[in-house]
Design brief:
By secondary structure, the chain is mainly β. Helix content is about 0%, strand content about 30%.
Length: about 210
């Protein structure tokens, strides 16, 4: 795909504020297992790019730069590729999958996706989660992330879901090197992969696949 000249990205390239949901799906904070993305009020990521054991923490500073380049949407509605350099939030076309890409100081960037409705089940991360923070058992929000290590289900208290975040059309991608998230299709869901390590995940309402 030939990228067009630099344009302004349609996708939110900023730090989202915390959003507490009310009701059974309510979750508290945007906390990844054992990591902090210092300076970001609404999202945290482990410095080593992967989920770590409970109680560990590492600070990281997000980039404040603007998107580096964007392949703008074509008149025919063909899939696009957006390249960003700062924290960017987006959702699947249905709005069920909410994701962000965020830079991490001194390590690969981090991708996280939360699902408002999910039926897949995962074992609780090693070391366990605080009470009410585990959402990967088909009850409440399911959350998964990947950075420089393996993709991992996450202990989370809040969700990163934001109804005002822009939708990523099916077939389109957002890249924060070396991570790329692609909204594949309604049947496949969202895929996020680190091209350097080959690790990532594909997630949809019915299934989570880690590779």
């Amino acid at each position: 795909m030939t990228r067009s000249a630099r344009t302004t990205s349609r996708f939110r390239s900023t730090t989202p504020g915390r959003r507490r949901l009310v009701g059974p799906a309510a979750l508290a904070g945007v906390v990844l297992l054992g990591g902090l993305l210092a300076g970001c009020s609404g999202a945290d990521a482990p410095q080593d790019g992967g989920a770590s054991s409970a109680g560990a923490s590492a600070s990281a500073q997000p980039s404040s730069s603007s998107p580096s380049s964007t392949a703008g949407p074509s008149a025919s509605g063909a899939p696009t590729t957006t390249v960003v350099t700062s924290m960017t939030t987006f959702t699947s076309p249905t709005g069920n999958i909410s994701c962000y890409l965020a830079p991490v100081q001194g390590a690969d960037p981090y991708a996280r996706c939360d699902l408002a409705e999910q039926f897949w089940a995962e074992d609780e991360p090693e070391g366990g989660c605080s009470e009410g923070d585990w959402g990967g058992d088909g009850d409440g929000y399911g959350s998964v992330g990947v950075g420089g290590g393996d993709a991992q289900p996450l202990c989370v208290g809040d969700t990163i879901a934001d109804p005002s975040a822009p939708k990523l059309p099916y077939g389109s991608s957002i890249t924060l090197e070396p991570l790329t998230c692609t909204s594949v299709s309604d049947k496949v869901g969202m895929t996020c992969e680190n091209s350097k390590t080959g690790h990532g995940f594909t997630v949809r309402k019915e299934k989570l696949e880690r590779f």
